Amino acid sequence: MSAPPPLPTLQQFLPQQQQPPPSQQLPQASQPPPSDSHLPTYPVTPAKPPRVHSCVLCQQRKVKCDRQTPCSNCKKARVECLSSVSIRPRRRKRRFPEAELLARLRKYEDMLKELGVKLEGDGEKEVPNVEGNGGTPGTEQEEDGCNVDEARVRKTSVNGAWAAMSDEFRDIEEALLGSSEDELETSITRTYDSLYTSDGTELLGFPSNTDIDLTAVHPNPIQICQLWQVFLENVNPLLKIFHTPTTQQQVFQIAGSPGMTASTREMDALLFGIYAFAVVTMDEGQCEMVFGAGNGSGGKKKEMLAKFHYGCRIALVRADFMRSGDITVLQAFLLYLHSVRQILDPRSLFLLTGLSIRIAQRLNLHRPMALTPFETELRRRLWWQLLLLDTRMAELSGSGTSSLTTHWTTPLPSNINDAALYPAMTTPPPSTQGITESLFILLRSELLAFTTTLRLAPPKSREKAISDLESHLNTTYLTHADPNIPLHALTLLTASTALAKMRLHLYTRTTPPSREQAFTHALTMLQNLAACFSNRTIITNWKWFVVMNIPLDAYIFILSSLRLSPSDNLALKAWAVLDELNRTRDLTKRREGQGEEEDVMHQRLCSLAVKAWEAREKREGVVPVPGWIARAREEVRRRRKGESEGSTPGFGGMGLGVEMGGGLAEGGLNGMNTGMNVGGGLGGQGVFGEEFMGGVGQGMEWYWEAGGLY
């Protein structure tokens, strides 16, 4: 296996002035002519102008192109005029059926020889054996061990008794070897697309008018490189959906090309997905440092996020993401879905993640394919990230189902570094034992794969299954992790939270529910969350992941349980953890950008926290009130005042009431069997449903049983 090429630098792709070689430099006018006047002189011919090729549309329509930019035909059709030079030639796929046909002919020829039939030209040319290990170095290998050179030799050896059929087979083989499967596939796809007038993107709210110059929407080359660096630090370690060295080379090449001419429609979509996701992970100060001060009231981050979301939607429609067979377009769509998680209703986003799963299934990402090791690894990574996002959205939307009900056979991603991968490789790299760049994505994929088996396991064997998983994760990954490395620390906390979450849901479903054990595991989840917020690097680079995966089920379970037992040892420990957590991340604080009437989750968490604290004061007397409880009390008081005046809808109208949380604390999660309807009745803003704490079992039966994911 040859070593992968080194990472390129941006300077390699920036246009530079090139000096002609010394042999081609003309003497300056001020210099005297050379003394050797007897030497012959030659006229200097001017360089030929570069040849201008016909555009892609004119070539496809087979009409004359005036070779302008844009050409008159493209202007009339109101489509983008693309030069055929800018379109990368597609790799010709290897054609296994031809090799199989030739091998079969060789077999029949050998059978005739065994029967004593003398073939014409027998012995004139040595034919390689079909069952050999493949040909000479430098030849293209076919799947059955033969190569292209051998196939061509075998073609000339079919004669004798096969003479009548030989010419026909030669004609068929010549036609097959002379045609491209890519050309045939493209022709069929275009014909199929022409049967329908719409691809359905307008139903999803994507813009129908894509006749817009995206060059003005792209940031400048320096900003592109800055956003790419932010993406590498804040997003790539947790997703790893593409090969970083290859994508970096493409990004630098596009950024260094004049007017972004080196970009394709697929790469345009991917770039805008990278821009948007990078901005999501930045704070307001970082956005102003990269893009300058904001002009609007919403801030620079909001302005740039809206701009890049708009560009990404345009680019996705241009790339025909609903029908495209390019994996790059699906990668761009996944990044777009991640970037809108904070502003889009989980119920709506769950529908879009389902669309991404369907696109992936159409591309056969859900099962192994006979592709190169490089392509295989990228497809595995993308498939599992799609599953993880779809599963999380199923949890938040309360649908109770996701793609986990669909069978798939795609193996887990390999435990390797990107340096071990390169496009030209022919053999899979060996999987590494220990820590690699793929540590985080591999651990989350293992957790997701385990939930599918846990759902089907008998209830009595689930505790042992979780213990076996914990032992496997510790042996394979976690014992090699260094808590001082931020990514390793996040991995350790994520694994601990996921295991605690599985056990929390397991113990709340026992008969009778084991409240103390469930409380302990819920407390572990909150302790891990507090550790994430207290780690400066984790919360600086990966705050988007921590915030979007806050274990609200554990938070609600703790507050509800504290209403019944507010003063025992576990309760005192829980109040200390809640104080620490709310000093770094006040979960009763209204979400950014949400109005007073909109953030129902904020209202209900405040009410639940106040009720738990009032139960403690009733039991213990006067207790110093922490700041987050004081803010929650003020919020509840303000809302009740507005309700009494009739100016705003109160808690009672939203099913909050004094009974909120009672069913959870008294009967555990298993006892919440009425009234939740997760995701309903919130006007698209919250996560939990109308009764909030009335009953979780009905809407999230699959979620509790599977244990969910962090």
Automatic annotation (TrEMBL):
**Pfam families per record:** Fungal_trans, Zn_clus
Comp. bias (Pro residues): 18-35
- What molecular functions are annotated in GO for this chain? DNA binding; DNA-binding transcription factor activity, RNA polymerase II-specific; zinc ion binding
Report the subcellular localization: Nucleus
Q: Name the UniProt key words of this record, in alphabetical order.
A: Metal-binding, Nucleus
Chain ranges of the Zn(2)-C6 fungal-type domain = 54-81
Has keyword Nucleus? yes
Look up keyword Calcium and say if it applies.
no
The main place the protein resides is nucleus
User: What SUPFAM superfamilies does this protein's entry cite?
Assistant: Zn2/Cys6 DNA-binding domain
Task: Return the annotated region ranges for Disordered.
Answer: 1-46, 123-146, 636-657
InterPro entries this protein is in? Sec_Metabolite_Reg, XnlR_reg_dom, Zn2-C6_fun-type_DNA-bd_sf, Zn2Cys6_DnaBD
Matching entries from SMART domains are given as: Fungal_trans (SM00906), GAL4 (SM00066)
Its domain of life? Eukaryota
What processes does the entry annotate via GO biological process terms? DNA-templated transcription
What would be one Gene Ontology cellular-component term for the protein?
A: nucleus
Q: Please state what the protein is called.
A: Zn(2)-C6 fungal-type domain-containing protein
Task: Cite the source lineage.
Answer: Eukaryota, Fungi, Dikarya, Ascomycota, Pezizomycotina
